[in-house]
Design a protein that fits this description.
Length: 158
């Protein structure tokens, strides 16, 4: 799915710097593959960052209004990230059924939640005309989201 979405970016960006968007996306694929094969989390992170950079570059080159596909791209990127890190984090043994079920439910909820929240923010941004107050609330929400993610990531695993 992500491949189809990523392949559509350069064509939709028009003729402006298509090669650059393609190079950034191809670098992302290369780094993701290297990270998966070598089980190197840092290389995976750089590959996933390249996908984000590719989408940001696509949006910048496209110009105009907000991309209606942004919630789907966010959900797909989250899914790929979760699956990539699950694939390199797995040890030699097999996981318990309960753990696998909780992981599937949590990943599904996170991806669905990302798409839902992204869609709601997309609708809110299109209908909001309050100016600075809405902008400040958006910045505060982004800071709180990052703080929450840092808190969850810093939790000790047992």
């Amino acid at each position: 799915m992500l491949l189809a979405v990523l392949v559509a970016y350069p064509a939709a960006a028009g003729d402006r710097l298509v090669a650059l968007v393609t190079i950034v996306g191809s670098t992302g694929w290369l780094l993701l593959a290297l990270g998966l094969v070598g089980r190197w989390p840092l290389v995976l992170v750089w590959g996933l960052a390249a996908f984000g950079a590719e989408y940001a570059l696509f949006l910048r080159l496209r110009g105009g209004s907000v991309d209606a596909r942004a919630p789907y791209v966010a959900a797909a990127l989250l899914l790929v990230t979760e699956l990539a890190f699950l694939s390199i984090g797995r040890g030699q043994g097999s996981a318990e059924r309960g753990l696998v079920a909780r992981t599937v439910v949590a990943t599904t909820a996170a991806v669905g939640g990302a798409a839902l929240v992204g869609g709601l923010l997309l609708v809110a941004s299109g209908s909001a005309s309050a100016g600075l107050a809405v902008e400040g609330a958006g910045v505060a929400a982004a800071v709180l989201a990052v703080a929450f993610l840092v808190r969850v990531a810093a939790r000790p695993r047992s």
